[in-house]
Write a structure and sequence with these properties.
It is a single chain. The protein is α+β, with helices and mostly antiparallel strands and 98 residues long. It has one domain (15-96). Helix content is 27%, strand content 32%. The chain contains three helices and five strands, in the order ααβαββββ. The protein has helices spanning 15-29, 31-35, 46-51, and strands at residues 43-44, 54-56, 63-72, 78-90, 94-96. A hairpin with a 5-residue loop joins strand 3 (63-72) and strand 4 (78-90). The chain is globular, with a radius of gyration of 15 Å. The N and C termini lie close together (10 Å). 18% of the residues are buried.
Length: 98
């Protein structure tokens, strides 16, 4: 199992979505916790946490965010971009799988 500070998300660098998630962390856990937010290690999807040996505690509610997926043609050219909702869980919402 990897250290909780070393896990890596699929975050692609949208400052808007990072800001939205950080604001929700501040609302739920306070400004101090929000100041520690790192979009690459602090919030992951349910499946990603499982891959790293952690599970979401029972009763925890996801932080809703959005990501943009790209549809490409056979040559690799982007032909469409569309939004997709994603459910994230903060590091304070998970525990190691025993």
């Amino acid at each position: 199992m990897e250290s909780i500070n070393q896990v890596i998300s699929a975050y692609r660098g949208s400052p808007t979505t990072a800001k939205m998630v950080k604001e929700e962390i501040a609302r739920r856990y306070g400004e101090d916790e929000a100041s520690k937010y790192n979009p690459y290690t602090s919030c992951l999807t349910f499946r990603r946490w499982l891959q790293y040996g952690y599970r979401v505690r029972k009763g925890e509610r996801a932080i809703r965010s959005i990501t943009y997926l790209e549809e490409k043609d056979k040559l690799g050219n982007i032909i469409n971009t569309y939004p997709k909702g994603v459910a994230l869980f903060h590091r304070l919402q998970v525990e190691p799988v025993s």
